[in-house]
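Cross-check.
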Amino acid sequence: TFAFDVRGNANDDRDLFELNTQTGELTFKTAPDFENPTDRDGNNNLSVTTAVSDGLDTTFIEVLFNVTDVAAPNANIFTSDVQAFTASVDTVVDTWEAYFALVGDGILTWDPDLSGISQVCSGSQCLDVNRFFVSYNTNTQSATLQSTGTFANVPVAGTDTSGTYSVTFSDRAAADLVSIQNPSTFAFSTKNLGASNVLLPDSDDVVSILSNASADVSASVTIQASTHANDPTSGGFTATQVGTVSVSGTAANASSTAAVTNAIELGQPNVGTSVVNP
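Predicted model, tokenized:
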């Protein structure tokens, strides 16, 4: 039969521990707190000496503990609005897990409900995204994406009434972390550039909007969650691309493409604070 005991002196941390004299299990009386150390030196390094005896011989063992700072996400859904948006922002992450690890207790959200921003313009072809929203649920470890917007003045050939344009916002391998929140839709309008082969219009082109904006247009929308490296907007922020939207023309006499990158600046969000995009 073995008997266990706590030994030591006034300079160790034995007062912070309890020992089961039958099993030798050593436990904290109160869970340690990295921000508020209770060890004698106040440095989150604790020591205690235990003894085990069989009635004849006694063996002493010094046990050392080091309390480290570990981020523990709250079990909740966090979203926060970001005041500014840019199509050229940066982070280097390869997985969704790495992406969410960067933001700790939450995830920043670009959610300009009250005003759209023209993200991509090539000539007079623009995409205006009215809403791009992403949130992360730490309970389910899942992300929700929502995007709505408008493609304006997509160039098409005036004599080609059967052309098809499509929008893709498509999935990646980590699809199990992504859920689509409806509506995730886009609206379209087109430009009539005449019968010649279509080029992206410049400032010298004279064009007109088709009276029936949907005549030559159909939409196909899926969701993409992907990461990408761009340039940081400032030294204090990193960011990630969470979706790429592209539009392409497939009409016989029309050929045009446009793409937009939805990006989010990362950092510790002010959870519960709503900042409206100006």
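Residues 77-266 form one domain. The chain has one helix and 15 strands. Passed to J.P. for a second look.
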